[in-house]
Amino acid sequence: MKQKVIVIGGGIIGTSIAYYLSKNEVDVTLFESKDIAAGSSGSCDRAIMIQSKKPGPTLDLALKSAEMYKTLELELEEDLEYRKGGGMILIENEFELEVIQEMVERQNQAGLDVSIISGEDAREKVPLLSKSIIASTWWSEDAEINPMGTAFAFARAAQKRNAKMELNYIVQGFLIENGRVVGVKANNENFYADGVVVCTGVWTKSLLQSINIDVPIVPRKGEILVTERLPKVIDCNILSGSYIASKLQKGNDNPYGIGLAIGQTKSGTLLIGGSREFVGFDSSTNSTVIREIAKRAVQAFPFLKNVNLIRTFSGLRPFTPDNLPILGEIPSVEGLFIAAGHEGDGIALAPITGKLMAEIICGQNTDFDMEPFSIQRFANMKI
Amino acid sequence: MSDIIICRCEGVRLHEILASIEDGANSVQGIKKRCRVGMGYCQGRTCQPVIREVLINKLGSNPIDRTSKIQSPIRPVLLRDL
Ligand SMILES: Cc1cc2nc3c(=O)[nH]c(=O)nc-3n(C[C@H](O)[C@H](O)[C@H](O)COP(=O)(O)OP(=O)(O)OC[C@H]3O[C@@H](n4cnc5c(N)ncnc54)[C@H](O)[C@@H]3O)c2cc1C
């Protein structure tokens, strides 16, 4: 008989896992309380940006994931708006230059050939960039993707392999017998399976609390501005170095964690982010934050003054205290797995997360050291 | 009939909205995410009532639950005027 697995959560992580499980001939049912991409995966940016990741386990994971993205459209047979247009981090002053230079050196040591280019060279790549930008980083391997489109595509591809997508099903708790999970309770009905994987992003903490498992994931809000459609003006991922520098600068308080991130969607709108705020599950947008992001965007791209803002939105990043996702089996309950807490990297990390989790759930060997991602690392932590 | 344009900003036709509901969309948000309806310049000001009606027709239930929440700005605004 086929192994039966329940996936909880229909974001980009849950749908990716459902897809790779279905590829492994597993009988998959995914329960989603609302709709595919109704959570963080439907209110975020589109960057597969690698050059900004700290060397270590996340960078290793991200590199593998970026490799998988290159062929994902072919594999899923859908247009995911994938583009490898490269990426830059803008540098506005000497202090930022110093901080970014150190960062680039670390990336070079880790094997990424990120470079620093002059302001002129940066303007050659992105002509509308302000004259006030003195330099920028450049890495040609950074890419982008439509995150919602990718979650839907994973879900459809899984369905083609007979996975079931149960939308409007709220998982209320777990069925546990003799220390082993045997299913879940959803919409007041019991559903049975050999394994259960929890992919509920920022909602993971409250769901697992029902069986006394403490997961230190909290929401970290990000606000984003959407402009009217424009012809192609930005062809790569752009971050500002000021956020990275501000973390190292004493007395430079940035209460909303604002750092510019700009990209252009296939339809032509610009997505201008963003902020990093710990305000619980409050997903409203704040006019002070929006105004501040707009100000920085106009600073970096003066032409934006005359561009219309048509919408703002916010999303919640599933933050963990050490900025690493939690991936693997939960040791205290046999058959129960978790894949959550990808914070601001969940889009970039989705394919590799799906592939590795499918291998782990099927009892196969993974060619990746999963130790750093184990939930056990929080065992001695006071949450 | 299924070819009539519902959302002029994004050029979305009725049959795309019906296909989104067929695919599992159960809210204005869900339809938006599947076919970009209401995501353009006017932000669904004109088409949202129509989409809501199609939804209620297909799925029944409370129209309030099915609305998309209004996100600022109320009207397009130049970034310099913020
Ligand atoms: C503003 C912003 C910008 C971002 N930009 C980027 C970026 O450029 N690049 C990048 O890589 N990442 C980015 N991220 C991060 C990325 O969005 C997240 O890491 C990712 O979406 C997390 O996916 P997920 O599937 O874990 O969570 P979600 O997408 O939130 O999915 C969880 C799902 O579980 C469902 N659920 C919850 N509870 C239950 C229950 N009890 N029963 C059933 N279903 C349930 C929810 O409805 C939800 O659909 C950004 C995030 C934000 C907020």
Can you walk through the features of this model?
The complex is a heterodimer of chains A (383) and B (82). By secondary structure, chain A is α/β, with parallel strands linked by helices. Chain A folds into two domains: 169 residues, FAD/NAD(P)-binding domain (3-Layer(bba) Sandwich), CATH 3.50.50; 155 residues, D-Amino Acid Oxidase, subunit A, domain 2 (D-Amino Acid Oxidase, Chain A, domain 2, 2-Layer Sandwich), CATH 3.30.9.10. In chain A, 28% of the residues lie in helices and 26% in strands. In chain A, the strands form four sheets. Chain A has an eight-stranded mixed β-sheet, sandwiched between helices. The longest helix of chain A is centred in the first third of the chain and has 16 residues. The relative contact order of chain A is 0.20. The model of chain A has no long low-confidence stretch (mean pLDDT 95). Chain B has 82 residues and is mainly α. Chain B is 35% helix and 9% strand. The longest helix of chain B has 12 residues. Chain B is globular, with a radius of gyration of 13 Å. Flavin-adenine dinucleotide binds next to helix 1, strand 2, strand 13, strand 17 and helix 10 of chain A. The site of flavin-adenine dinucleotide has 42 residues of chain A, from helix 1, strand 2, strand 13, strand 17 and helix 10.
